Amino acid sequence: MNPHILILGAPGAGKGTQSDNIVSEFGVEHVTTGDALRSNKGMDISHLGLEYDTPGEYMDKGELVPDPVVNEIVKTALEEADGYVLDGYPRNLDQAEYLSEITDLDVVLYLDVDEDVLVARLTGRRVCEECGATYHVEFSPPEEEGVCDECGGDLYQREDDSEETARERIRVYEENTAPVVEFYDDEGDLARVDGEGTPDEVWADVREAIESNA
Ligand code: ADP
Ligand code: AMP
Predict the structure, then answer these.
(1) pTM for this structure?
(2) Which of 1, 31, 100, 211 is 20 to 30 A distant from 156 in Cα terms?
(3) How far is it, in rounded angstroms, from Cα 198 to Cα 81?
(4) Exposed (0-12), middle (13-18) or buried (19+): which is 206, by Cβ within 10 Å?
C-alpha cells in the first residue's frame, strides 16, 4: 500500500513544491484543499447558513473556509486515493481531530520556514493556469517570463498572494494552524525539515524523512 503522508507548513513554506516531488517518487496522489477550493471558489454554500455564500469570499480575504465545507472535500478525496500526500489540511485543531477519525497517517512532515522568507516566496509566486506548475519570479523563474516551461500555459499571480493578504494568511496560520503542528509534535510523530534551503536541498531532507518514517 502506498504511504499516507501529511505535509504541514505555513503558506509559502514549499508544501506544493515538495508535494510534486513526493508524488513522482512515491506514487501517491496530491490531495490539496487549496487547489480543490480554488476550482470551486463560486460554489453555492448558502444552505449551510455561514457568514459568506461561497468559498471564494473567505479565500480572497485570507480567512479559513469553514470546516463543514473543507472536511467533506478531504473525506471524499482520501477515500478515492491509493496513498496520498495531504497538503493544506488540517488547518485547525478541529480539522486535525476530524482527520484522525477518517484516516491513519504514516508520516507527518513539517517544513520550517521563517516569516520574512514566507512573504517573499508568496508575493513572487506564479502558477500555470493550464497545469498548475509553480514558479517564483526570483527563486525559480521559468525560462521565458510569464510562460510555463512544462506546457506553455500562461502564468498568473494568485489573488491572495498580494503582500497584504499574504501577511493576513500568515497571521491566520499562526493563530489556527501553529497549534496543529504542536499537536502532532506532542504525539511524537513530527518529522521537522528545514525548509529554507534550495528546493533540491529541502527535497533531499524530505525524501530522507519519508524513507525513515514510512
Ligand atoms: P506552499 O504550497 O507551502 O504555499 P509553494 O510550494 O507554492 O508553497 O511555494 C511558494 C513559493 O516559493 C513558490 O513561488 C515556489 O516556487 C517558491 N519556493 C518553494 N520552495 C522554495 C525553496 N526551497 N526556496 C526558494 N523558493 C521556494
Ligand atoms: P492554500 O492554497 O493552501 O494556500 O489555501 C488557499 C486558501 O484556501 C486559504 O487561505 C483558505 O482560505 C482556503 N483553505 C485551504 N485549505 C483550507 C483548510 N484546510 N481549511 C480552511 N480553509 C482552507
Answers:
(1) 0.97
(2) 31
(3) 30
(4) buried
Place of cell 517544513: 111
Q: What average pLDDT does the segment 82-98 reach?
A: 98
Which residues have a Cβ under 8 Å from the Cβ of 32 and sit 6 or more positions away?
Answer: 16, 19, 86, 87, 88, 89
Q: Reply yes or no: is the peptide bond before residue 90 cis, omega within 30 of 0.
A: yes
User: Distance from CA of residue 22 to its chain's centroid?
Assistant: 13
- 27 Cα to the center of ligand 2, angstroms: 24
Residue spans per domain, the chain = 4-28+82-115+163-213
Residues within 6 Å of ligand 2 by CB:
11, 33-34, 37, 58-59, 62-65, 70, 88-89, 91, 95, 160, 169
CA of 13 to the centre of ligand 1 (A): 6
Q: pLDDT tens-digit profile of 122-134?
A: 999 999 999 999 9
Atom 19, ligand 1: residue with shortest CA distance: 14
Q: Of 2, 64, 65, 77, which Cα lies nearest the Cα of 32?
A: 77
**Identity of residue 167:** R
Helix-then-strand count for the chain, H and E = 9, 8
How far away, in angstroms, is 26 Cα from ligand 1 center?
20
Which class in CATH covers the domain with range 4-28+82-115+163-213? Answer: alpha beta
Nearest bound ligand to CA 92? 2
Q: What is the SS3 assignment for 86? A: strand
